Amino acid sequence: MIRKAQETLMTRILKGSELATTMRTEIEASIADLLARGGRSPQLVTVLVGKNPSAEAYRASIERTTTRVGIRHRPIELLVTTNESALIREIHALNADPEITGVLVLMPLPSHLNPHAVLEHLSPLKDVDGITPTNAGRLHLGLPSLRPSTPQGGIELLDHYEIQIEGKNVCVIGRSNVVGRPMASLLMQRNGTVTICHRKTVDLPHFTRQADIVTIAAGHPSLVTPEMVRPGAIVLDFGVNVLGDKLVGDADFDGLIGMVDAITPVPGGTGPVTALVLARNTVAAGYAALAGNLDHVEMVHAPQL
Ligand code: ADP
Fold this sequence. Notes:
Blueprint: E1 12-13, H1 17-36, E2 43-49, H2 53-69, E3 72-78, H3 84-96, E4 102-105, H4 115-119, H5 133-141, H6 149-160, E5 169-173, H7 180-189, E6 193-197, H8 204-208, E7 213-216, E8 234-237, E9 241-243, E10 246-248, H9 253-256, E11 262-263, H10 271-291
Parallel strand pairs: 1-11, 2-3, 2-4, 5-6, 5-7, 7-8, 8-11
Antiparallel strand pairs: 9-10
Helix pairs in contact: 1-10, 2-10, 6-7, 6-10
The structure holds adenosine-5'-diphosphate (ADP).
């Protein structure tokens, strides 16, 4: 399709850094409040099985973020040969340790380990990435839960830039358990009209062209091109792809500038917010430990603690 010549828009670049500064202050206040209520000082454990460069990069960003807001981070490294029962034993030990507030099992796991079988064993009260069946189910039912950090951060970025969700057509590309699927649920809760697209979607551009907001987490550089998007749309790019020595998202960022109303850059858009939501979820898990349930974890999501 040939794109008609059109007016160039002043595209807003939705950087995560401004929101990140606010979130850090709020998290520090939440930790002080948690301790004042008799909670324990929050500690996050990340579990890495084998070696994986992208998981290690994410862990490094978690380390920086948690240290900065005053959350202890303990990295655990297990051999690539670790079998399912040994990993499950480790998770049970972390569940039972009152000093540990939150546990994140870094993905992807080596291929001999089934993530679903492993995650069934993680205590929902310590599930800071919101991917146990309990937290995922509660999210889909609209009940308080620990929410997956990437999509939750995306929603907060939209809110920060005062981009309305209610009544908008939103096209969510990707249906992974950590990004696309929960993103669709969160957008629906905010009264967006959501279409979920995935690898088997026939004619992806048909759906993206109808959308006021397009969110992408597909692991495909330049999956969303200017021809696929309505002029004036909003693009939320969760993609992280290594191209040579460059990090790029899933949208053709340069091509979309001047055409869309707003777009998140990669790096520097949704990324800085993700690790902070994870840090805040660790504090929320501290409240869950104190209460013995998940009913009030979302009080940490609201600044008015
Ligand atoms: P992430 O963890 O970043 O969400 P996954 O690899 O788990 O990544 O999931 C990728 C998702 O992207 C899948 O749901 C898949 O269906 C979707 N996807 C991948 N390629 C395409 C494509 N060409 N068009 C639409 N969706 C795609």
